[in-house]
Amino acid sequence: MRVVVLGSGGREFALAKKLSESPAVEKILVIPGNVGLLQINKVLLQAISIVDIAKIVQATIFFGADLVIVGPETPLALGVVDELERCGILILGPTKAASQLESSKAFAKNFMKKNKIPTAPFAIFQEEAAAHQYLNFCDMPEGVVVKADGLAGGKGVFVCKNAEEAHQAVYDLMANRKCAVSAEKIIIEKRLYGREISAFALCDGENFIPFGYATDYKQLCDGGQGPNTGGMGSMASHDWPSKKLRQRISDLVFAPTVEGMRKAQIPFKGILFAGLMIEEGDGVGEDTAELKVIEFNVRFGDPECQALMALYAGDILIPLVAAASGSLKFMDDGAVQFHHNQVAIHVVMASAGYPDIYDGGLLLNQKILISEMSAAEQAAVAFSGVSEQDGHLINSSGRVLGVTGVGANCQAAREIAYSLIDKIKFKGAHWRGDIGLI
Ligand code: AMP
Ligand code: GLY
C-alpha cells in the first residue's frame, strides 16, 4: 500500500515510522512533513500547506494513495475527508461535520448533554454582556473555565481561579483586539479537579476499539509549573489506567459518542480522543472516581501518539485500514496489539524561549546545530521542528524533537530516554525532567 500521512510534527513522525514497519506498506508520503522524517525507510516528503486541501487532494491522487492518515485537526475541520472520499480515496478521519466534536466546543458540549456523556456543567454565550452577567450570578466557588468555541491551537482556554480572572477571560476572548484569539461564541464551564488522561478509540462510524491511554505533560516546567505548551512529554503504560477504569471510559464515553454521532447521521470515523478528568482524591481511587470529558479531539494527540506508537506491538496498518474501511466489526480483540508489560516515556526537547517566541511554525531567528547522533540514537528520536542547513539539522520551531524510552517499568523507560537526552545537545535546549514521575 501507498500511504499518505498529513502533518509535520512528532506525532506524524511516530505514525510514519510505525507504518514503515508494516510489510504491506510500500511507500509513505508525508505532507508536508519535516526533513528529519527522511531518515525513515520508505518516506517521501511533499511541501504542501496543511490548509491547501485542493493541492493535498491532487498530490494524494498523483501519488496513488491507498490510504490517508490525518495527524492534525485543521485539515479535518476544513473537510479534507469529504474531498478525498469524493475522489474515492480511503482516508481515516472524520468528515467536516463529524470534526465538529473538536472544531466547535459548543457542538461538543451540546452533544454530550444530549447523549448523557459526563462533562462539566456549562453555559454558552454569544454576547459579552450576557457572559459577564452570568459570571456575576453563577455560584462556582471551585472556579470556572472560559473557552473559545472554535479551534484556537490551545490558546483559547482560560482556567480561572476567581471571578476577576473569568471576567478578564471573557473580555479577552470576545472584545480585546490584542488577544491572540477572538471568539464570537464562548463556553463557560465549571472547573474540574483531578487527574487528566488522554483516551483514544479507533472508530469506523458504527463500532470502536479502544486504542490506548496516555498522559500528556502540558506545562513547561517540572511539577506541572509554568505556562501551558503543546505538550512537553507523554507516558503510556500497560497498567494505567486500571482495567475497570478503561471499561468505564468505553461504556460512558466512547460507546455513547459513536452511537450518538451515528444517530445524528454524522457518523464518526477516525481517531476519537477524549481528554478526561478523573476526579480522584479523598480516598477515592481511579476505579470508582467520577470521570468527565474535558474535551474531544478528532485525531491522535501530540505527544501522546509518540508514546502509544512505541507501545504498539502489531502491524499498525491492519487496524487503521479496518477503521477507514468500516470493517472494525470483523476484527477480533487480539487484532489490536499493545505490549502488555511495558511502559513508554516520551520527552520533548524544545528551543530556547518556547513557548513564548514560537509563533505558528515560523523559523526562530537562532538556527542551532544539533550535535551528531549515532544511527541507533536517532532511531529513538522523533523529529518535529527541524530543517536542514548545509547538511546539518537545525531547529526550526518551538518543539524540536522528542526522545522515547521503552522499558519494563517507568524507571527503566526513563533511564533510556534521559540518557539519550544527555547526548543530544543543542544550544538553548530545554526539557522536563519529571516525565513519567507524576
Ligand atoms: P481543552 O482545549 O478544552 O482541552 O482545554 C485545555 C486544557 O485546559 C485541558 O487539557 C485542561 O488542562 C484545562 N481545562 C479545560 N477545561 C477544564 C475544566 N473544566 N476544568 C479544569 N481544567 C480544564
Ligand atoms: N496533546 C494534546 C493534543 O494533541 O491536543
Q: What does the model show?
A:
Strand 19 (386-389) and strand 20 form a beta hairpin. The strands form 5 sheets. The protein has an 8-stranded antiparallel sheet with strand order 16-15-10-11-14-17-21-18, sandwiched between helices. The relative contact order is 0.14. The protein has helices spanning 10-20, 53-63, 73-77, 80-86, 100-103, 105-114, 128-137, 163-174, 243-263, 304-311, 317-324, 375-379, 410-423, and strands spanning 2-7, 27-32, 43-45, 67-70, 91-92, 122-125, 144-148, 157-160, 186-190, 195-204, 208-216, 219-221, 225-228, 233-237, 269-279, 290-297, 343-350, 381-383, 386-389, 392-395, 399-407. It is α+β, with helices and mostly antiparallel strands and 438 residues long. The two termini are 40 Å apart. It is globular and about 60 Å long. The chain has 3 domains: 2-93, Rossmann fold (3-Layer(aba) Sandwich); 121-190, 2-Layer Sandwich (Dna Ligase, domain 1); 192-438, 2-Layer Sandwich (D-amino Acid Aminotransferase, Chain A, domain 1). The protein is built from 13 helices and 21 strands. Bound molecules: adenosine monophosphate and glycine (GLY).
Brief descriptors of the model:
Rossmann fold, binds glycine, 8-stranded antiparallel sheet, 438 residues, 29% helix, alpha+beta, 3 domains, 5-stranded parallel sheet, binds adenosine monophosphate, Dna Ligase, domain 1, D-amino Acid Aminotransferase, Chain A, domain 1, single chain, globular
Question: Quick gist of this model?
Answer:
The chain has about 450 residues and is α+β, with helices and mostly antiparallel strands. The chain has 13 helices and 21 strands. The protein folds into three domains: about 90 residues, 3-Layer(aba) Sandwich (Rossmann fold), CATH 3.40.50.20; about 70 residues, Dna Ligase, domain 1 (2-Layer Sandwich); about 250 residues, ATP-grasp fold, B domain (D-amino Acid Aminotransferase, Chain A, domain 1), CATH 3.30.470.
